[in-house]
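Next comes the chain:
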Amino acid sequence: MSRVPKVKWHRCMFKLDGACWFCGGVAETVDHAKPRSRQGTNKDDNLLPACFACNNLKSDCTVAEFRRVVRMLVCRRLFSMGIIVPDWKELPIVFFGEGNPTPFVY
């Protein structure tokens, strides 16, 4: 497995001041927006700071696929609490880093 060079790791962490791009928690790892298993690169615009939980849950999904996974998990949790979400496929899922006007720029 190819690791992200240390300089790129630090630049990636600087993107959101050490916050996870997905949940806003403390980022301990670097995730690839397009996974390396799908020909993603170690270029700066493909690297996102992530906490262990989000990085493990995302696994080898793209960001769009991960959004669908999170939407399903959120709706499943709401349903288990007795809350019916009729248009669950339309439920907006916005990741923490998307609030940053330039998440892929330093």
The beta strands are 29-32, 47-50. The chain has a mean pLDDT of 86. The chain has one domain: 6-99.
